[in-house]
Design goal:
Elements lengths: L2 E3 L9 E7 L6 E2 L3 E7 L4 E6 L3 E6 L6 E3 L3 E6 L50 H8 L20 H9 L18 H12 L15 H16 L2 E9 L1 H9 L5 H15 L5 E4 L2 E4 L5 E3 L1 E3 L2 E3 L2 E2 L7 H16 L13 E4 L19 E5 L3 E7 L2 E15 L5 H16 L9
Parallel strand pairs: 12-16, 16-17
Antiparallel strand pairs: 1-8, 2-4, 2-7, 3-6, 4-5, 6-8, 9-19, 10-11, 12-15, 13-14, 17-19, 18-19
Helix pairs in contact: 6-7, 6-8
Amino acid sequence: MPDFRLPDLGEGLTEGEIVNWLVSVGDHVSIDQPVVEVETAKALVEVPCPFEGVVSARHGEPGEKLAVGSVLLSVGAPTPLPPTPLAPTPESPVSSEYSGNVLIGYGTTHTPRRRRSRPGTPRESNAQDHRVERSGPPSSTSAPPRPAAPAVISPIVRQLAREHGLALDRIEGSGPGGVIRRADVERELARVTAPAPEPRSGRRIPLHGLRGVVARKLATSRREIPEATVWVDVDATDFLAARAALPSVSLLALLARFTVLGLKKFPELNSRVEGDEVVVLDEVNLGFAAQTDRGLVVPVVRDAHAATTAELATAIAAHTAAAREGRLSPAALTGGTFTVNNYGVFGVDGSAAIINHPEAAILGLGRVIDRPWVVGGQLAVRKVAQLTLAFDHRVCDGGTAGGFLRFVADCVESPVTALADL
């Protein structure tokens, strides 16, 4: 019976949390059929099985974390049904319900009764046996039987309760037969650690999985990067006209094209700090912010410097769709060297964005709205937006950052200008 182990899910990930099983015990699976959804520190992924056969066991429940290499699924031939048990006889007085088998974290609900020998059947004797047989009914002062341990879904749940001083026998389980799941322990932990009741109510959102990774990266960025921000208002009238002339190219894709051209002129912004050195990178792996139901993610278009405008647009659209459907691979969320963000879709004019650590800069575009603008000495109504650049002041000074931002702004105001650098 082959065991399918949790595979390496990419770029240093050591564990994954089971979100949802896609197969049940007894189901037939084919090679490369997705069998489980697993959430890693990078993304929600469907894990395909490399074997064909019948699922004989699932190892883990939703909410449980498994280390890479742990057994995830057992696949083999269907297990034959056991024969119908006969009625108990004097030879076999013990019910199969109390067989003494122990599942991980469950314990045994009853101790099997000891079989008594039949008259005339030789058996081992000792002084203790004779004392027991000569004694009468058990004394009322005998120690009561130890209660069964509460049933939990896995040892991880028991460890979580122990670390926070929670008594499992006081936690109501939501699993089959009252089995205590991880969510039950977390709910109890939230209850006992909640502050004293106030007039208003609220809810707690655990910072784990993808949300936890984003939170840690943002905190690291604020802690380690001495960032500065520059911004400029731009006349985006011709920018919108170029977008209308290229129906398959989004505003973000056009901005990405201008960004790549700007990084070619100002490569210091396509870098990262490693120890006491600034490493200026040759390739541009362009990240872009995408809002999903699971929070903000930053998919990466690799080798953006070698792509055409149409290829950039196609890659951005495909990555965005995959991110929102939870199909993006962990590798597609790592390795970025520069990030662009169209926060204008949220209806805001500008933002002092946080740099996506360990990158050196992030460029943002605000909403495009009608504003009065001077054109050729005359006041006119134009489509105006704001470009904002947050940059790591260790990799360059304000002159370099300002030069890059001005170049991108010129491309936005006159997209035909970019043709000279294509």
